[in-house]
Amino acid sequence: MSTRTLIRGGLVITAAEETHADVLVEDGRIAALAAHGSTPAESWTADRTIDATGKYVIPGGVDAHTHMELPFGGTFASDTFETGTRAAAWGGTTTIVDFAVQSVGQRLREGLDAWYAKADGNCAIDYAFHMILSDVNEKTLKEMDHLIEEGVTSFKLFMAYPGVFYSDDGQILRAMQRGAGNGGLIMMHAENGIAIDVLVEQALERGETDPRYHGEVRKALLEAEATHRAIQLARVAGAPLYVVHVSAEEAVAELVAARDKGLNVFGETCPQYLFLSTDNLAEPGFEGAKYVCSTPLRPKEHQAALWRGLRTNDLQVVSTDHCPFCFVGQKELGRGDFSKIPNGLPGVENRMDLLHQAVVDGHISRRRWIEIACATPARMFGLYPKKGTIAPGADADVVIYDPGASQVLSAETHHMNVDYSAYEGRAITGQVETVLSRGELVIDGRKFTGRAGHGLYTPRSTCQYLN
Predict the structure, then answer these.
(1) pLDDT tens column, 9-45
(2) 3-state percent helix, strand, coil for the chain, nearest multiple of 5
(3) Which of 171, 228, 384, 464 is deepest in the core (most CB within 10 A)?
């Protein structure tokens, strides 16, 4: 059965242009665009017409950094693929790229298959996977080639978390060399975990156990040092590098210096670093535990450098690093010892709205909003132009966005499976009204009409910013 949907009267915004156009959707894809009132647009008929007058028509968001059901610190991220992808849809995100985890001693294949099993039949929107490498050796290096063949084209390594995910410089170099040969993109958690562990131990010995010390021991200089080291290792290997969750001005400076040399070095930041700060980590009682994530929140002064990086394209992507843990029973595991607080924040539902607020506040333009949240992540991770734009042939992942609506972010009203909001009480201008995923209504006028199992696994090509 062929189904046609016509979206009339909206302002279509992509990374490239803004046009007053009607959009015709047929069989899950964008069939055509035409100017309002033009002969082609007037001639179109459809099974369903959506009136987008006074609204934005934008591509569905691509969140390239989520952790659904991630095991961490003796517990699991509180969002499942079902609850997390439903919340993503509510927030205007129609594709996530989650991280499959290889455990030490395990083959990559085992880790990837475990994540296929978690997601299969449970997702409300489309999804893909990166692979976390925890055990770099001859066998796993060879496996990287096979994963790329099936559309898993990026691999994350950690300079942090000794004893869990940590790789040493030799392992990192070998993985980067493999990536240089097979086209895989190495993603890096850049923090000097060995040095941080020393500072954690010393802080606890001094009786500094509150959540705010999490931010104090994970020093900005240790993020910058690791970022610098990762860049030099990538240069030696002749490999591209994507640095995840950049939070510190000094780390941005390392990326800027690398890009000024013409290196294929890319940077991502997250809404928490743009909108929250160490003030939140220092909230009284144990409230600061809600804001414990790594890299940590920084003093407010760092935000200007992050916004500047987004404007100058020294930072290319805003993802969420969505990894929620409930305050009650999960974050509380670290009462009396900040190092035992599970690291992670909820955010998959809030990203598109917070970045629209950044447009309202004058930090970025409307087209840049779509670029950093939709088009660039799709290109970076081999999903464009299927995802990330509104153009003939693209998947009909489309959001009708009301730029004049007002809302207050709150745990009372969000759809993430977590008992607090990192942005509780924050007033936002703009709200998602309707969401189509491959032409199917998932959110219809602020009602969820999607279903678990609609979302499909989406294989990816290699990074589209490389020759």
Answers:
(1) 999 999 999 999 999 999 999 999 999 999 999 999 9
(2) 35, 25, 40
(3) 384
